[in-house]
Amino acid sequence: MEKSKNTLSRTDELIIESYKTTMEGLAAYYGEAFEIVLHDLTDLDHSIIKIVNGSHSGRKRGAPITDFALSMLEQIKKNNAPGSSAAYGGPFITYLSSSKYGKPVRSTTIVIFGEKKKPIGLLCINLYLDSPLVSLLRNFSLDAPAEYIAEHFINDSDELIARSLEKVKSEVLADGAVPVSQKNKEIVTLLYYQGIFKLKDAVQTVSRDLGISKNTVYLHIRALDEKT
Question: Does pTM top 0.70 for this prediction?
Answer without folding.
Answer: no
